[in-house]
Amino acid sequence: MDFEQIISRLIGENIVLILLAVLIIVAIAAAVRIVPQSEKHVVERFGRLRAVLGPGINIIIPFLDRIAHKISILERQLPTMTQDAITSDNVLVQVDTSVFYRITEPEKTVYRIRDVDGAISTTVAGMVRSEIGRMELDQVQSNRSQLIMAIQEQLEAQVDDWGIEVTRAEILDVNLDQATRDAMLQQLNAERARRAAVMEAEGQKRSVELAADAELYSAEQIAKARRIQADAEAYATQVVAVAIAENGLEAAQYQVALKQVEALTALGQGDGKQTIVVPADAIQAFGNAFNMLKGR
After folding, report:
1. Model pTM?
2. Could you tell me if 85 and 133 are in contact, meaning their C-beta atoms sit under 8 angstroms apart?
3. What is d(CA 52, CA 35) in angstroms, rounded to the nearest whole number?
4. Cα separation of 81 and 125, whole Å?
5. Is the per-residue pLDDT at 6 higher than 70?
6. How far is CA 269 from CA 255, 265, 275, in A?
7. What is the DSSP letter of 80?
8. Is 66 within 8 Å of 30 (Cβ atoms)?
9. 74 and 120 in contact (C-beta within 8 Å)?
10. How far apart are CA 129 and CA 259, in angstroms?
11. Which residues face 100 on adjacent strands?
């Protein structure tokens, strides 16, 4: 074998080794799959589901397995949806809703539903119409949280077969047509007028009650004063009676004379009284009172 043949043989063997090395490197590169934290990868083998790769380093069989789907597991928000609904009291409303969800089982999502967003939107629209149809307009406005909870619970049960977790459902707004708004405004104004009339009537009633209480209190105080005065007069009479019983006619004459003196004194203290004509018996009353006081 000459030199050229040897060189050719060596070159041929090196090429085979190089190709083999390249093949090994390509196989290793194809076998090792690094999945990001926010994703899951669906692996197929000959068109069938083989495995679901989680975040991190994963090994697959090269040339047999392939990454068929790369699914984000981040939370998603559906675009705001608006649908018409009729309440149990026949009021047409427009409800704006929004749904947040995330994919937890990509193999179900990939092989059981084609348009996830569209399916969820259709399901939510039907549930909103069904739930609002059982409620009156006032209940829709006041029990919004209860309505959201009912929709979310039903939605979670519906989408479970799709490998989806509903994290939150929101009712953003409930809109009414203009005619309904005008009617509600009239009703609100009428209710405000009724409340104002009731408050005014209650105020007048309270005023009358307070006035009656004041009159009753005044009458009670007058009666109390008269009772005290009567008790005082009765006590004075009793004292006089006791004095008469103990001292006889002399005490009675003393009391009469004393009253006459007090009456004349009061008469003399009046305004504009410069001259007082006193009867003769009045002078005698002074004397009798003085004598009685000396005798006592």
Report:
1. 0.54
2. yes
3. 11
4. 8
5. no
6. 21, 6, 11
7. P
8. no
9. no
10. 100
11. 77, 168
Residue 231 tokens, joined? 């008790």
Locus of tokens 């103990």: 246
Closest CA to 175 of 80, 77, 78: 80
Alpha-carbon gap, residue 164 to 296, rounded angstroms: 118
3-class DSSP state of 189: helix
Other CB atoms within a 10 A radius of the CB of residue 94 amount to 13
Q: pLDDT tens for residues 146-184?
A: 888 888 888 888 888 899 999 988 888 888 877 776 776
170: its two tokens: 């929101």
Closest CA to 134 of 159, 157, 154: 154
Q: How far apart are the first and last CA of the chain?
A: 182
SS3 42: strand
Taking only the tens place, the pLDDT of each residue in 95-131 is 899 999 999 999 999 998 888 899 999 988 888 888 8
Q: How far is CA 110 from the centre of its chain?
A: 43
pLDDT at 284: 58
Cα separation, 265 vs 113, whole angstroms: 120
> Nearest-5° angle of CA 99, CA 133, CA 117?
25
Closest of 78, 100, 201, 240 to residue 156, by C-alpha: 100
User: Which two three-digit tokens encode residue 51?
Assistant: 């495995």
